[in-house]
């Protein structure tokens, strides 16, 4: 149990018990992911180059059981590129359907801030072949990630958290 939430767990009371055992295990379980939009002073975005898929991605990854998305984002950014960032505000929540080997996901995109040019990055060799700084227009991305990042950049400008499905905006600022 996360000790930051111990008082909240106490206020919630005893965990619910199933009236019909096994129902909870039969319910759908989605993957949750969290990534950070990290920029340089020239407004280029930091992308990771995964060794397990053909497109660039944001630094971030899968949220572990019992882990808040913001903490997962911080942990994954540290693991993937060696940056121990204070993860800032939420920019976008996006649902993506399952495709190929990947289940459907709820993806949280956070503001990772601006880092100085020349900041030392250490790509995680077991998952990445490197990192790349790029504008959104020039990055080799899946269409859904391009849409999601476009929304994230809008959220940075407007200060409004955006809700999307497959990178398509569901609310308007």
TrEMBL record:
Which CDD domains is this protein grouped with? NUDIX_Hydrolase
Listed GO MF terms: hydrolase activity
* Names of the cofactor(s): Mg(2+)
Pfam families in the cross-refs: NUDIX
The cross-references to Gene3D superfamilies, in alphabetical order and at most eight, read:
Nucleoside Triphosphate Pyrophosphohydrolase
UniProt entry keywords in alphabetical sequence: Hydrolase, Magnesium
**Keyword Magnesium assigned:** yes
Q: Where is the Nudix hydrolase domain?
A: 29-155
Q: Where are the membrane-spanning stretches?
A: none
Tell me which domain of life the UniProt entry assigns to the organism this sequence originates from: Bacteria
Q: Which family does it belong to?
A: Belongs to the Nudix hydrolase family.
What is the name of the protein in this document?
NUDIX hydrolase
What species does this protein belong to?
Answer: Dactylosporangium fulvum
